[in-house]
Design brief:
Helices cover 37% and strands 21% of the residues. It has 107 residues and is an alpha/beta fold. The chain has a single domain, classed as Resolvase, N-terminal catalytic domain (Rossmann fold), CATH 3.40.50. It has a five-stranded mixed beta sheet, sandwiched between helices. Strand 1, helix 1 and strand 2 form a beta-alpha-beta unit.
């Protein structure tokens, strides 16, 4: 299953663009946080990670900086996904760890 995660960090940002892109990418469930990426508490990411817990699930984000604001956060999340055999997709960079081409994965 594809699980989408987005994050908007300011009051001026709107989550609709991320939601639309994740829907277009085939995400069956989408979670959006409205908080700074520096904050440790991101309840919607926690929910997304609870759903993305089976081999062959894929966590999809529009941009890598929506997933984490520091290399440390990204490495930790990557380890968690890898331990669960959950793949990662990053739409704007064509990253897809399922082993399929980005065009097939997101098109």
């Amino acid at each position: 299953m594809r699980i989408g995660y987005g994050r908007v960090s300011t009051r001026d940002q709107h989550p609709e663009a991320q939601h639309d892109a994740l829907t277009a990418a085939g995400c069956e469930e989408i979670f959006i946080d409205k908080a700074s990426g520096k904050l440790a508490s991101r309840p919607e990411l926690t929910k997304a990670l609870l759903v993305a817990n089976r081999p062959n699930d894929q966590l999809v984000v529009t941009k890598l900086d929506r997933l984490g604001r520091s290399l440390e956060q990204l490495v930790e999340l990557s380890k968690t996904l890898q331990e669960r055999s959950v793949d990662l997709g990053v739409l704007d960079q064509g990253i897809d760890t399922t082993g399929t081409s980005p065009a097939r994965a997101f098109g």
